[in-house]
Amino acid sequence: MTARELLDEAIKAREKSYSPYSNFQVGAALETKxxxxxxxxxxxxxxYSPTNCAERTAFFRAIYEGERQFARIAIVGAPKGKSTDxxxxxxGVCRQVMAEFCDAETFVIIxxxxxxxxxxxxxxxxxxxxxxxxxLK
Length: 137
What we know:
The protein is α+β, with helices and mostly antiparallel strands. Helices cover about 25% and strands about 25% of the residues. The protein has a single domain (about 5-135), classed as Cytidine Deaminase, domain 2. It has helices spanning about 5-15, 55-65, 90-100, 125, and strands at about 25-30, 35-40, 70-80, 110, 120.
């Protein structure tokens, strides 16, 4: 699957967003190392802190299914009714979840660049000096 195709999967996931407060809809498509795709969307809550990001929704679904080997994630986000061709990077909490379950040297984060192109970054570049299970050894 190409990076663009994975972004298209994230766009499909975005359609499921529950975001009545911010109206900012986010979708994620998480690819395992064996090519399986797990979708996630943001799920808001009136109290705000119980809100869950699209990236974590995708990870938690995959983890529940027993997956532990992840290759890439595509993320798209935009206000409801707007184009998803804007850079929407994962928040710090989502980056920390990625650090827990992904190899920072190989895991790739894919996002639109806002100019019609694609940004692909390694987790280690997005979360330098991240805290991972390796720190506890």
